Amino acid sequence: MHLTAITRRGALGLAGAALLAGCGGTGAEPKHGGTLRAAFAGGGAAETLDPHRVNLFADAARAKAMYDKLADLGGDMAAVPRLAESWEGNADLTVWTVRLREAVFHDGAPLTAADVLYSYRRITDPEETFRAGQDLAPIDLDASRAVDDRTVEFVLRHPLAEFPASLAAFGAYIVPEGADDFTAPVGTGPFTFAAFEPGRSFAADRFADHWDGPALLDRLEIVVADEESARVNALLGGQVDYAHDLSATTARANEGDDAITLLSSPGSNMLGFAMKTDRAPFDDPRVRQAMFLLCDREALLESVLSGRGLVGNDLFGLGFEHYADAIPQRERDVEAAKALLAEAGVPGLSVVLDTAEVGAGLPEAARIFAEQLREGGVQVELNVRNADTYWSEILTEGQIASYRSGAMPIASHLSQRLLTDSPTNLTAWRDADFDDRYLLLQSTADETDRQALYDELQQRLHDEGGYLVWGFADWIVGTAAHVRGVEPAPANTLDWARFDKVWTE
Amino acid sequence: MKRRIETAVIVTLLAVPLALALLGPLVPFAGGERARPFDPEAPWPGTDHLGASVLDGVLDGGRGIVLTAVAATALAYAAGFPVGLAAASTRRRWLDELLMRPFDLLLALPSLLLVLILASIAPPTAWTLVLVTASVNLPDIARITRAAALDAAHRPAVEAMWLQGEHPWRIATVHTARSILPTVAADAGVRLVGACYLVAAASFFGVAGPEANDWAVMVDANRGGIFLSPWGVVLPAALLVALSVGLNLLFDRLLSRRDTP
Amino acid sequence: MIAYAARRAGLGAIQVAAVAALAFALVELLPGDAAVALAGDRPDPAVIERIRERMSLDEPAPARLADWIGGLATGDLGTSLVSGRPVSAIIADALQPTLILAGVTLVLLLPMSIGLGVAAARRRGRWPDRLITTTSVGLYAVPEFALAVLLVSVFAIGLDWLPPTAVGAGSLLDEPLVLVLPVLVLLARPICSIARLVRAGMIEALDAEYTAHARRAGVPERTVVWAHALPNALAPAAAQIARTADWLLGGVIVVESVFVVPGLGTALVDAVNARDLPVVQGIAVVFGVTTVLVNLAADLVAFRLAPRLEVAS
């Protein structure tokens, strides 16, 4: 009963976002001019303008203002062409020809295939540590070439049906050939660099010759405020026009306030727990299933997210392209879980649950999940780890750990976390057959056949995988009432932190 | 009459938080099922950041904070007071230096850095909290004790005792310690309050244990929902303030009674 | 007195060196290193190893400490592991807002806390004393973040009199209004602790024989209080005032983060979180030098106020 109510609200949430998105585009007539000041969490002196070195939301927002990628991700994680005008794979999906748009850099130089190849070589430099390096690793850049000034031929090391998503990787921005100093960045993006103080502020002006039409704003300022309460206060006090990454509590407290508008993008932030499938007690699939069954997802959603999110079904990517939504929703069943634990020979199971302050609601969810496990007779000890080194520690240590993930294509989730040689295989899920099926998926050009493989892999993960996914938090941003044209979007997608279509009344 | 009103105020201020701290954990379960966090429609006093009743936290959260604050202050005084007193009483310069210089070193290390790093190194438990709080206070206590005792130890009366051949340690423990008591007691009262404060601040830095829910932690954890349901912050904060003011009034009262027999 | 000051200065240099070494040791004790912290939620072991090499973290700790001390001797604080910027530049950027905040607070703090302490002591046991002591103790128990939440919601959001944060402010001095709330929050606790110590010291001094003697000699009460009793009462408080200056320089991290002031406290937290050792040590040295100087000044002031203390030895 309770469940249907929640899922119905979830569905409504999705529809609501679509509706809002529609309004944003067709409402009042866009106006030119003005300055918008946006507040993001930052990283102090570690902040960078090097678009390939981006790490933080503030870095990504600045890079997006000044640079473009060949493609970006839509709200459903499907690749949307940006600097690429079109792309086409060969029959076995190992060679992709990308046609570039007519675009110019801020210094007037035209975008060429050489710029693209230079940027990708810099990103994949084995001496370097750029985030997108891993996404672009399948490209054999020595074999790839510029067919002409506006056509690039990418030769891959293995077939990749979802190659266009790689072009949209986090930080895969196109810089001018030879660029290595980013104190005064030059890109093709909608804003040109004006000023930057790490950990404090950034300013950029409208670029009149942007290929997608010039931005509506004259000037964009990005200021840093690490505390969520400070971002809200600055927005309420009129010090900023846009506040990124707000909490569900803030959204509830300001619901009736006409001075600010809150935009929620559902399904953006996956929340769950990662179990190590290679060691006791979670090397037994029955114990993992018992965990799935002991989890009261609605209670977590209500207590941790104030109901502002969607219930998870132990699968990543709810609402995204290729998600297996035919799999029935898993529900709590304490008796079945106890039976499974008894069958596995661990009726008095005792586990250590790792958690840390590495994301909103993570320690809270761990605390409530521990209570739920105790209701099933499982003894739980909570272990709070150091937040700065948490991710690295839980990659190899522990049994079960709090986990979250931002939005990315489902294929990226599979390749980065669930293959034998995946670099961040947190659940230690190493299965040769699973690897083979994934390779087959990436070699399958036919959409229907490929979807069947997506469904098959997700069914296996749902049955006995190591990720317990209990929910998806809304991604919430706030704007002042006079700001128009901000679209709700999951973090790191095309419409997220996108200011070239924004205007102020 | 005036004095009677004052006594009533002190008793009230202390009785409410202390009774809650002592008896609260014995009350089995007050709040009921978890609900939505900061729910303004939940029965008074509303729900906390995890959707549990604020009443649960108020009942369970007193014992921890009182024990932590008292333990940390006692520990810091047990170590700092004798050292400061000895340093002030000794007539040997090198002993004074030997006793006080290590504290200067600790003092020169910013307390903020100390809290921040100790919090990251040690696992977050109640004992970590006691140790961190005590070590932040230790150098101050030693210095303040020494400064106050230096003054007392060199009064003509003490000089006279010296000349009469009174044993130095007797002078220090009996005469000096007694005469600096007002200054030290004023300091101890504030420091006990400061310990409550530090526990709250440490919670802001993430030193609180994973399932800790004392009054100081509540103030930090529930501040995000203050506009939805203020009681999660207001109640524990009011209890902490009542406890602090009551304790200090009590200290003052005891001292003034001793001074004017 | 000059010999005393010189000896203390020499000692101070040793203290600063010890603080730097201690900071190094403490950060070494922290779990993980800069490479792990930088990798964040994508802890690819191969990438972490590459970052480690780029940062020269694969060298043994003593070698890195020796390197750093060698640089320090020539006035070079090194470069940040994470951003590659000189540590001195990072500190210079962060120092200005912190100095402004701490300076304004200190300038207001001293007259206010001494005035309140003296006023309470002179009316001991009567209502002004009760009011001052009770309010100050109550205020002392309220953590900065709670006070900040309260002040911001009333004066910035509710009444709209003052800006809620200092976000995007170029220099704090250009927009003095943004200073009001942070300074109020910073003042609240030190006023309480210092006023209490001054009060206790004053009560003792006013009851002492020498003040009674001065009164008997016909010295006006005003002179007795301010010229005879106060200097003696301030001696124990001087150490506390020095401690407050150190605490303020620490930027009171809470105030900096709630009001978005990019000062030294914020820089320190960022550096510890990123395990950016050269920056942590650089800031530790700045703190160490300041603390040593301030404590030295406090001791000298205490010495001037009550010279009998040191003369006795």
From TrEMBL, chain A:
The record, for SUPFAM superfamilies, names:
Periplasmic binding protein-like II
The UniProt entry's GO biological process terms, in alphabetical order, are: peptide transport
| Pfam families assigned | SBP_bac_5
The chain positions of domain Solute-binding protein family read: 80-410
Annotated GO molecular function terms are: peptide transmembrane transporter activity
**Which protein family is named in the record?**
Belongs to the bacterial solute-binding protein 5 family.
What name has this protein been given in UniProt? ABC transporter substrate-binding protein
Q: Which classification does the entry list for the species?
A: Bacteria, Bacillati, Actinomycetota, Actinomycetes, Glycomycetales
UniProtKB/TrEMBL annotation, chain B:
Gene Ontology cellular-component terms for this entry are:
plasma membrane
Q: How does the UniProt record describe the way this protein sits in the membrane? A: Multi-pass membrane protein
GO BP term, pick one: transmembrane transport
Q: Name one Pfam family in it.
A: BPD_transp_1
Domain ABC transmembrane type-1, first and last residues per copy: 62-251
**CDD domains listed in its UniProt record:** TM_PBP2 (cd06261)
Instruction: Output the SUPFAM superfamilies linked to this UniProt entry.
Output: MetI-like
Chain segments annotated as transmembrane: 65-86, 98-119, 228-251
Q: Could you list this entry's UniProt keywords, alphabetically sorted.
A: Cell membrane, Membrane, Transmembrane, Transmembrane helix, Transport
Principal localisation: membrane
Give the location in the cell.
Cell membrane
Family label: Belongs to the binding-protein-dependent transport system permease family.
- Indicate what this protein is called per its UniProt record: ABC transporter permease subunit
Organism, scientific name: Glycomyces paridis
Species lineage = Bacteria, Bacillati, Actinomycetota, Actinomycetes, Glycomycetales
From TrEMBL, chain C:
CDD domains in the record = TM_PBP2
Principal subcellular localisation of the protein: membrane
Q: Which GO terms describe its biological process?
A: transmembrane transport
Give the UniProt entry's GO cellular component terms: plasma membrane
Query: Do the record's keywords include Membrane?
Result: yes
Q: Which residues cross the membrane?
A: 99-119, 131-157, 177-198, 247-269, 281-303
Keywords tagged on the record: Cell membrane, Membrane, Transmembrane, Transmembrane helix, Transport
- What is the phylogenetic placement of the source species in the record? Bacteria, Bacillati, Actinomycetota, Actinomycetes, Glycomycetales
Q: Tell me where it resides.
A: Cell membrane
Give the bilayer topology: Multi-pass membrane protein
Q: How is this protein named in the record?
A: ABC transporter permease
